[in-house]
Structures are given as C-alpha cells and as structure tokens.
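Bug #77: duplicate submission created two jobs. Keeping one. Sequence:
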Amino acid sequence: MAYAGDLTASQAWELLSSDPTARLVDVRTAPEWAFVGRPDLQPIGKAVLLQSWQHYPQMAVDPDFATKLTRELGEIPQGAPLLFLCRSGARSKAAAIAMTAAGHTRCYNVAGGFEGDRDGTGHRGTTGGWKVAGLPWVQD
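Kept job's structure:
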C-alpha cells in the first residue's frame, strides 16, 4: 500500500509548524531516543509522539504498532498529516505505509530521518536528516 510520500526534515518542520493537526511520530527505540537524541517540537508548541516500530533488542516489528498509535492519536482526524521519523528513513517509511493501511490518508516519511545517511567514513549525523538541517532536538 502506498503512503503520502517523502518529506525532507525542513519540509517536515514547515508542515508541523503550519498545520495544527500535524503530528510527528518518532518510531525509533527507547535507547535511540535517550542516547542519540530526539526532535524537540516545544518551539512550535507540540510534543513528539514516541512509538517504536520495532521491539528492542530483538528488533521484531511490533504487530500492534497501528493500534497503539491510533489510540495515542486520540481525537486527531484520520486526514491529519502524520509524519514518521527514524534514524535514516527505512523504519519510518514502513510505519507510514502501515498507518496508511490503517486508514490514515496523509502519512509521510521524513527522508533522511534523524541522523541522515552514512557519510564517506561510515558515520551518520553529517549528511542529511533532522540534526544536520539544524532543527531543534534534545538529548537525555
């Protein structure tokens, strides 16, 4: 099943800032949120929804992901933009597809994710993604 498409981190920030119904869902794991950091939406008066796509440490896909997230979204209309973010964009794309299948019509993948692709030396966090775009983030 298709999803609404990919957005850059900057495009995601613009949509989150301009549409009061838009939500950002970080689908990484708790260790990633704690040790790598997570987006900070406080400057625009929102909170990031933290819902892991996979169970850590086995990394098996959570079969109840869509049900849990739908419950977490509460009264958010199914036509509200849902933006999904992971480390690099793979898990978030899968989550966007799953939520589209669950009936949400505007599910986007934040391409490049939080840390972006690997650079020439194999490191993330230097080429693309939320952090490189200079968008707000926090770390525990």
